[in-house]
Amino acid sequence: MNNWTEVLNTITSFVTALATLGMLTVAWLALRTWRREFIGTKKIELAAEIMIGVLEFQDLLIQARTPIYSPQEINDIKKWLDEVNYKKQHIPNSIGWTVYPDRLHCLTPILKLNKNAEITDKFTELFNKSLVHFSEDLYRLLVELHSFLGKIRYASEMFYANPHEIELQRIAFSDTPDNPTSKRIFEIGEEIKLNLEPVYKGKQSPWNKLKKIGGEKL
């Protein structure tokens, strides 16, 4: 009798152990599935967020470099320079801006970028997010696209001081259809779209390099 009791206890313990192992396995599989689905969902959402941010930032750069300006924008630039020069009067060894009334339009890219700082800030927030779910290829493209912000500002300022420098003008403004700065800004957006569009449309693939359309890389 004792032998049968021991056998039954052994079988019961074995069955209990199997049941416990089974529940742990089911729980682990469920957690793994949830984690995979959660991460997949976040990646899709992030891909769409980055793409929207890139398009908005591209639009900002295009708008800022448009060689068209209004009388109000010229007045805003004059007011801005007056404010900067007034503040610099109270800063030791500070050099103010020389005001050239006939060159104020050269500074319109800076004015337009300053008025849309929220788009720039939003775009900058995407840098570290991109490294969580995507390769460094995307990060490098975002950083390169962002670098045009400084290039355009610098070219605009230098063109104001040197209005006969054609190369500065070509960076600050989109003056011709084959403008190299415009081409590179467009190429970056197209490569990002090429790789992110399949993600937020439900397809995933390795990172693809965009074939150069032509023109020099600035």
Structure overview:
With 218 residues, this protein is an all-alpha fold. It has one domain (41-200). Helices cover 73% and strands 0% of the residues. The protein has helices at 2-64, 71-88, 108-115, 117-124, 126-133, 136-161, 166-172, 180-200. The longest helix has 63 residues, at 2-64. The termini are far apart. Residues 26-39 have low confidence and may be disordered.
Query: What gyration radius follows from the Cα positions, in whole Å?
Result: 29 Å
Q: Helices and strands: which structural class?
A: mainly alpha
Distance between the terminal alpha carbons, to the nearest Å? 90 Å
Q: Regarding quaternary structure, how should these chains be classified?
A: single chain
Total number of helices: 8
Provide the succession of SSEs: HHHHHHHH
Shape call: elongated
Helix percentage range: over 70%
- Number of E strands: 0
Mean pLDDT: 82
Major pleated sheet: none
What low-confidence regions span 5 or more consecutive residues with pLDDT below 50?
26-39
Share of residues in strands: under 5%
In total, how many domains does the architecture comprise? 1
Topology record:
Elements: H1 2-64, H2 71-88, H3 108-115, H4 117-124, H5 126-133, H6 136-161, H7 166-172, H8 180-200
Helix pairs in contact: 1-3, 1-4, 1-5, 1-6, 1-8, 3-6, 5-6, 6-7, 6-8
Summary, kept brief:
The protein is mostly helical and 218 residues long. It has helices at residues 2-64, 71-88, 108-115, 117-124, 126-133, 136-161, 166-172, 180-200.
Supply database-style keywords.
mainly alpha, 218 residues, 73% helix
